[in-house]
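User: My advisor, Dr. K., asked me to get a structural model of this assembly before our group meeting. I'm new to this, so sorry if the format is off. These are the inputs:
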Amino acid sequence: MIAALHRTPPALMLVTLAIGLAACWSAGSPFGILAPIGALFLYARGYWLLSLWGGLLIALAGTVLAAMLYPGTIRDEALSLGALVAVAGCIGLLLVPDPLRRGSRLAALHRRAARQPDGLGGYADRALDGAVHPDDRPAIAQAAAYAFWTGVPQVTSYRQREPDGSYRWTELRAEPGYGVSVDVDAMVSRPCDRWTVAESLGATVAAVKAAKVIESLHGKAWAFDAMGKFTYVTPAAQVAIDMALEDLNRRLGDREFIDGGEAGWMRGVHPDDVDKAASTLRHCLKTGEPWNIEYRMLRATGHYVWHRISARPTRDDEGRITGWFGTSIDIDVYKKTEAALRAREQHLEQLIDTVPAMIWSMTEKGHPAYLNKRIMEVTGATRETIMAPDGSLSLKKMIHPNFLDLAEQTFAKSVATGAPYNIKYLQRRADGAYRWTETRAEALRDETGKIVRWYGVSVDIHDLIVTQTELHLRKQELTRLVDLVPSHIWRLTPAGEPNFFNRRFIDFLGLDESDLETSRTERYAAALNAAIHPDDAVRLWAELKHCLLTGLPFSMRYRLRRHDGVYRWMDGRAEPLRDEDGSIIQWHGLSHDIDDQLRGEEALRESERSLRQLVETLPALIYCAAPNGEPIYRSEKLREFLGFGLGDKDEDGRTRLAGTLEAIIHPDDLPDVKEKYGLSLATGSPYAMKHRLRRADGVFRWVETRTAAMRNGEGEIVQWNGISFEIEDQVRAQEALTLTQERLARAAQAASLAELSASIAHEVNQPLAAVVANSHACQRWLTLDPPNLERAQKTVERIIRDANSAAAVVGRVRALFRQTVEARSLCRLDAILHEARDLMLEEASRRRIRIEIDIEAGLPPLALDRIQIQQVLVNLIRNGLEAMEPTQHRALHIRCARTGDLLRTEVRDTGVGIDVPDKVFEPFFSTKSNGMGMGLAISRTIIESHGGRLWAENNQPSGATFVFTLPVETKADHDR
Amino acid sequence: MSKHKHIVAVVDDDPRLLESLEDLLESAGYVVRSFPSAVALTRAGLAGLDLLITDIGMPGLDGFELRDLVKRARPDLPVFLITGRHEFADQIRARAVESFFCKPFDGQALLTAIARALRP
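Assistant: The format is fine. Below is the predicted structure of the whole assembly, which you can bring to the meeting.
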């Protein structure tokens, strides 16, 4: 009932008030009022409590003042009331609870600000209200209950809802509070209770007292003596480990525990921990050092639970150890949490190290703090290599020089502003290579928003970048290619809507790409519609529609209007692109501008037509043959001439060539033609031949046939082209000409004989005329009266001289024609030269020309025809004199010298020179009106008959030199 | 025959014939002036000459040209042509030129022709 009253303060108040009033009324004393005041003190809080206290103080002050001011009865009454107020105050002091000492308390420690509970009410209920995450409620309730019933402190984590609705992890700590009341004596009074009492506390009374104090505070404590023998253990603890004192102290061997023996409590210690526990305890027992250790203890439930054990010695006045007291705290949750944390940390570390990323962290100032294993392996960097001497970040060894500045600036900016850091750069790797890497970092901030750490991750994006770059290049290249292709490339949707034109096509159509209001497809379709030639449009759309429906490739020629309004012929083709199912994804099309080609073809056809006409109309017989000579073409004129076409002479067993040749070539010419044509075919050399060709009427006509090979770029013969000219008339004319020439030659022969005879006659007639005239003169001198004998005599001498001269001419002519050497005798050339000079001296002086002779001394005599050589010299001298007639430099030089085995004689004039030096030696060549042109011819014959040579040269600046040589050794000739 | 001796000029490029004609004419009592070429004659002049005998085939001016030249200056001067070339002779005969002699010519006939030409 009392408990029920405790739970309902108003009821209690009413009860105590009723009792107090009853006491006052029955006793006639106000003391009864203490009961309700006590109740008020019990339950009043805050304002009510303060008011109560204030009332009591005012009442006390009032009674004191009354006692001091009023003597007698009032004073006694005031003192009596003051005593009542003082007693009430004492009761209040005793009853007002200290929160720390009252029952179980739960305190929540928050990360940011601990929430202080206020007002009346149960804390556990508060902790378990809606602010706790529903999942954590059972756990926290269980921990609180456990703490309450066992007194074992509990540490639990749970998620608590914040005002903003988010949850935060919060740690809940629950520990018991006890009132201290130690009554050691009472413990000895119940020897039957095996859980509580030692037979004798002995010297450990102080230790047991201390243990009891601890037990009152902590719920669990124990004491043992200086030898380690338990004298007290909190009964609940004994129950928990299911070991009574005697079990704990039981000796398990012969030896005392302190001497290394085993005690019963050791069995409750985890085998892995027992040795350490025992040895440390022995050590402490001996030294008196405090015993602090953690080990696992076996609970009655059969589980080992981690405990932290602390023991301290008690000493007597002389400092000897009288016993030990201690306690153990269940730290199993700590241990497990710690292990879990460690495991999680390890896991996290492994995770960080195995994540395929390079992870690092920096201090808030940007100084390197941590590098994961991977970043160190990959880049070869360590915290030291990326740290400048002042501790700041140095990226020099990690980043490509090209990116260093950018990276450092970006990083510095991020550190300064706290903005996330993100950069792509070339990172230097352990092997010295650079690879594209992306590094991102973000700042971790504390509650106040201050940066505490930078966490970063670097990811190798080299392959990505390379692929992207490659892809970009490929795309660019493809685009360029598509635009470069000298054709129009386009793409249609399966429905036939154009959705791509290449650059060339756009330019061709003159599309305005800046128009962005209408969709590309609409623009393209409109442009295409407008550009197609009206005459082709119907045909084209029908064909395209057909192809779109059937999926058949599109191919068509049509006209398309260029941006400048000119229609151009196009060759358009399109094929569908199908997916794996075979359905059409899109159509790819290609349009070729074939306008030039078509025009070219037209021009070519025109040119071919005109060429053919040319060939057909040329007044010549034209044919073509294959590389092996087989006829493949004959012009109209040739077909007309032969009277048959290409295939008309084909016969079995013979080639067309052989058949044709035998049919058309004159039998006399056939072998030659076959041989020459065969040679040309074999060697590729041009063929040219004159032969007779059979005309359609059977008449053979002379033709000249020429054939040459036509070769391709590699030089191979692709065709033989031939032409035949009719040369019948030419051949006839040539024959006539030849006849005429022959006649002429005969006539010329006759004429030259006549000329020669006339010449000889003249040569002979001159002296003969002189002889005859002299004879008449002589006769007259003799027939004078008196006869002039002197003149007659002189005249006769002349007659003899001239007659001899005539005879000599005749003899020379004979010698010339007989080519005799009879007249040769050894004579000196210089003498002959002087004679000839003397002969011509008169004529030279008449012409006022000097004759200069230069003869080398000691020339050998030669076997010569004196007269002939003299004639040659006279001839040359006369020629020279006559040549100089019209000129000013009047001197004729004759030079004679020996050159090796030859005597060389030169007659040099300063005349007009000779036009054709060799021609002058031909018979009947003369530049003189009265010359007969025999002189030089005869002279040359004479010199050559002497084994020498005679030729003419022109002088510089003018004139000509006639040179003849005579061999010094002419013995052989002489003998002959 | 008068005491005055007739002067006869002879032109021939052959010194032997010149010599022989000079001999023949002197033997007939003429004064002879010999010239190796037509040019030599024209240079000497025609004054005093009574008759001219010239070869046809000569370098420079030939006989025909000399005769034509002389005929312009002295139309009265008798000119005798002589030649060794019989082809010329045929042409001259065809032209019916009388005062013409072929080599070798008859000295007596020449002298007779000269005398006839110089007859007053």
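One thing worth pointing out at the meeting: Chain B has a mean pLDDT of 83.

User: Perfect, thanks a lot.
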